[in-house]
Amino acid sequence: MARKDTAADAANPGRLKQIALTYKMTRRADKKIGLVLAAVGIVTFGVFLAIGFLIGHPIYLGILGLLLAFLATAIVFGRRAERAAFGQMEGQPGAAAAVLDNIGRGWTTTPAVAMNRSQDVVHRAVGKAGIVLVAEGNPNRVKSLLAAEKKKMNRIVADVPVHDLIVGTGEGQVGLQKLRTTMLKLPRVLTGPQVTATNDRLKAMGDLMSNMPLPKGPMPKGMKLPKGGPKAR
């Protein structure tokens, strides 16, 4: 019993420290976070307390209002912290990959399956919606990357739908904050075993290409790579 209490006591300071750190990070992007949270808590508690006086149960409604005020404050804080985090990540290389890593269960993500010299990159996620290719970088350049990767996917797993998304703020693009929601709204067309089989086929193809022997030294003049061979990314 004493060990459990000690573990709980050790966890609480760490949790409080994490909340404090999150608040500081959020406040850098959202200067009004403190006023907003205070207003939400006070208004929620005040409304329930007033109702309690009106119906003759100020203590009961006051306690309920205090609990709900804490809950409402936590919800608002979480949403504004998430919005601030996405705002700081927007436009940063690899931001889309970070979102994909936290998309949730049922999805398998592979970052940077394609890349060019300008650091435009395509990530891949596989789930019950099929294969989703997520590109980040210059919209004009990533289109060719997406087209090439989509063609490859259709050749390897022709029976699986392939979706493509470009992360950005322009027309026809998906904002970083809406990326996860957009992917979760895609229609589910695959079963669990089909998702596993798709991942296995893609993994096998990746292993095959990575283990393919390549000649050492400069390539002889006039020699061409066979079709379907590895391409430089």
Automatic annotation (TrEMBL):
Entry annotated with the keyword Signal: no
Biased composition (Low complexity): 219-233
Membrane spanning stretches: 33-53, 59-78
Keyword match Acetylation: no
Pfam families cross-referenced by the UniProt entry: DUF4191
Key words of the record: Membrane, Transmembrane, Transmembrane helix
The protein, known as: DUF4191 domain-containing protein
Species in which this protein is naturally found: Streptomyces shaanxiensis
